[in-house]
From TrEMBL:
Signal sequence interval, chain numbering: 1-24
Gene Ontology BP term (one): proteolysis
Alphabetized PANTHER family for the sequence: LYSOSOMAL PRO-X CARBOXYPEPTIDASE-LIKE ISOFORM X1 (PTHR11010:SF96), PROTEASE S28 PRO-X CARBOXYPEPTIDASE-RELATED (PTHR11010)
Keywords assigned: Glycoprotein, Hydrolase, Protease, Signal
Gene Ontology molecular function terms on file: dipeptidyl-peptidase activity; serine-type exopeptidase activity
Glycoprotein keyword on record: yes
Keyword match Signal: yes
Stated family: Belongs to the peptidase S28 family.
Source superkingdom: Eukaryota
Protein name according to UniProt: Lysosomal Pro-X carboxypeptidase
Gene3D superfamilies with a match to the protein in the record: alpha/beta hydrolase, Serine carboxypeptidase S28, SKS domain
Length: 510
């Protein structure tokens, strides 16, 4: 099984490398959305329906998922094992609430820790906790996955989640359990879209750091890197100026006869640079990730700037920039910049999604600390055609989910969505930052970073503003659930209803 998976991966990589053309441009690699890091490729288990319980009490299950929810060709009825994890330790029993984390572009393994918000609030809500893996990631691969990548889409993923949630509720006699879906970044987009597409399944959604407006030119394409620039400039004016000046310094040194070799030595690269863009792309992404994840207690932007601003007499600009690299990545590594990177299924999967529907026009404008490099849709289309033989659909997300005039549209029919953002997160520039209605609300913090609110709470290091942000989110969700039980009591036989694990009768409820 492992050999077959590796063979498929190698074949896919070979296809990608041999068909790639000179149309590929810089900035094709944009900062990953996921609140957790990349995961390695794992073997897919043979089990498709059974569950196993680990020493922590988590049940790992595999649902026999339909390949294609929207067509009726013979191939559409193919199935694959889709993984999900359940924690029933705190559940109040049938019809108590269910918190569902919608997995995104990575294996579900890391989300159990990264999405600590669920565990932190399970006792209060007496919740069943469910973590569902996105198709084509982790262990949830259809047979011959890459040959069937046309079924790899957000709409199919949402339908997957719906099928699994319904199955869990049926198997656990939880017909009236209110379901709250939660996700971060791309997963946050999925959570908000799930509430809009499947309101009969999810009572509400917490969409953390979800840039649902970074499509179809709703958000200026340079917004992301403008926030990165603002963050570094606020941290240190001299750091900002050093970074801004460094690009021309890199270009000037690279233009010399032995310049690339000198750059390779100065930045302790893992292999000799073949082009200055290798180094510049590495630095750009480093600054982006530092800003995106600029969270307490470490605050990576401050650490990078401390390295750059460190008073070392006689150091040139590029030496200062390298000190920033060491400050960010640490000095435990033997080399930097162009390490041999393992191409995980997360990397490959997100590349495909960006070439199909997740066309986020993210570029660099004139007013930033970076060299201008605007997003070019024509170049992106040509690159995707060379890699996968398909044209991206840049308008499909807004066609299928909406986005234009979102306040006007959603206040008419939408409800029960929390859009949470930390304004230090560059992706917040494409998020919903203002209330749309009484129940579609924006919860923002000036100093918050990417998906910080749904990560596990740390009482010893969490600042007051983060504690209050999470408290507000919990209060909103609690209000949804309370209203749900009141509505349920009104429309159903009160003697058959369970509220939070306790039977409700007419005498008690009044």
């Amino acid at each position: 099984m492992m050999f077959q998976r590796l063979f498929l991966l190698q074949s896919f990589l070979l296809f990608s490398l041999t068909t790639a053309t000179a149309t590929a441009k810089r900035l094709n690699t944009i900062p990953r959305h996921s609140p957790i890091g990349p995961r390695v490729w794992r073997d897919q288990p043979d089990k498709t329906t059974s569950c196993e319980v680990d020493e922590e009490g988590f049940e790992t299950c595999f649902y026999n998922q339909t390949l294609d929810h929207f067509n009726y060709r013979p191939e559409s009825y193919d199935t694959f094992p889709q993984r999900y994890v359940i924690n029933s330790k705190y559940w109040g029993g049938a019809n108590a609430s269910i918190l569902v984390y919608l997995g995104a572009e990575a294996s579900i393994d890391g989300y159990r820790d990264a999405a600590g918000f669920l565990d932190d609030n399970a006792v209060q809500f007496k919740s069943l906790l469910v973590f569902i893996e996105h198709r084509y990631y982790g262990h949830s691969f259809p047979p011959g996955a890459w040959g069937k990548r046309g079924y790899f889409s957000s709409a199919q993923a949402l339908a997957d989640y719906a099928a699994i949630i319904i199955d869990i509720k049926e198997n656990r006699s939880a017909q009236y359990s209110p379901v709250i879906v939660i996700g971060g970044s791309y997963g946050g987009m999925l959570a908000s879209w799930f509430r809009l597409k499947y309101p009969h399944i999810a009572l509400g959604a917490l969409a953390s750091s979800a840039p649902i407006l970074y499509f179809d030119d709703i958000t200026p394409q340079d917004a992301y890197y403008s926030v990165v620039t603002k963050e570094f400039r606020e941290a240190s004016e001299t750091c900002y100026q050093t970074i801004k000046t460094s690009w021309s310094e890199i270009d000037e040194l690279a233009s010399k006869p032995d310049g690339l070799s000198m750059l390779s030595t100065k930045f302790n690269t893992c292999k000799n640079l073949t082009d200055a863009s290798e180094l510049k792309d590495y630095l750009r992404l480093m600054y982006a990730y530092a800003a995106q994840n600029n969270s307490p207690p470490t605050y990576p932007v401050n650490e990078v700037c401390k390295g750059i601003d460190d008073d070392a007499s006689g150091d040139d600009i590029l030496s200062r920039i390298f000190r920033g690299v060491v400050a960010y990545y640490g000095n435990q590594t033997s080399c930097y910049v162009n390490k041999v990177a393992y191409q995980s299924e997360a990397t490959l999967g997100w590349s495909w999604q960006r070439c199909s529907e997740m066309v986020i026009p993210l570029g660099v404008g004139d007013n930033s600390m970076f060299q201008p490099n605007p997003f070019n849709l024509t170049d992106h289309i040509e690159r995707c055609k060379s890699l996968y033989g398909v044209r991206p659909r840049p308008h499909w997300v807004t066609t299928y989910y909406g986005g234009h005039d979102i306040k006007l549209i959603l206040q008419r029919f939408g409800s029960n969505i929390i859009f949470s953002n930390g304004l230090r997160d560059p992706y917040s520039s494409g998020g919903v930052l203002n209330n749309i209605s009484d129940s579609i609300v924006a919860v923002t913090t000036v100093n918050g970073s990417h998906c910080l609110d749904i990560q596990r709470a740390n009482p010893s290091t969490d600042p007051d503003w983060l504690v209050m942000q999470r408290k507000k989110e919990v209060e909103i969700i609690e209000g949804w659930i309370t209203q749900y039980y009141e509505d349920l009591y009104e429309f159903k036989d009160p003697f058959l209803i369970i509220r939070g694990g306790t039977k409700v009768d007419a005498a008690v409820s009044g």
